[in-house]
Protein: Amino acid synthesis family protein
Amino acid sequence: MIEVRRIHLTVEDIFHEGGPPAAVPPRRGAICAVLRNPYAGRYVADILPMMEALNPVGVEMAQRLLTAMGGDPATIEGYGKGAIVGSAGEIEHGALWHVPGGYAMREVLGGAKAIVPSTKKVGGPGCRLDVPITHVNASYVRTHYDAMEVGVPGAPAADELVYALVMTRGGRVHARIGGLQAHEIKGEDGLR
Structure:
């Protein structure tokens, strides 16, 4: 059922956005897997077997991304996930990524508490997706509200899916809009 066709990995360090250079530049990274969509071109009522089959794919992707980000789960402060469905698929095929992608990152990061924000859409080859990012332990930390544009050149073909995971070390480089700060997280509910 799972046929991975390509893996695309990117990491960027952000030194500044017109303001003073950061003492420690925030890092953002994304990993995208291009898979054959076994449900492309037809309606299938029970698609849950694929969600279960995606679990090891999610864990492997999260581990590879963490390694590219430096390997230390304690340094990861933000995360997000997303999916691009090729034109012969349906948005629900992208939704299959919610559990495997989210739980994989929480597992690899040692039990992060916040919900992993997500987005998905149907698109053609070269389609890009803005993956939302929030703090790994408290969704209301404003310094970490962000997004990372992801995509894989030439993907997805009509019969493909692109599943993405994003991690960050740090919040936005010049964050200054107030609100809950990372050092103030209570960790009670994944929100504050």
Summary: The first strand starts at residue 4 and ends at 13. Helices lie at 48-68, 91-95, 98-108. The chain has one domain: 4-184.
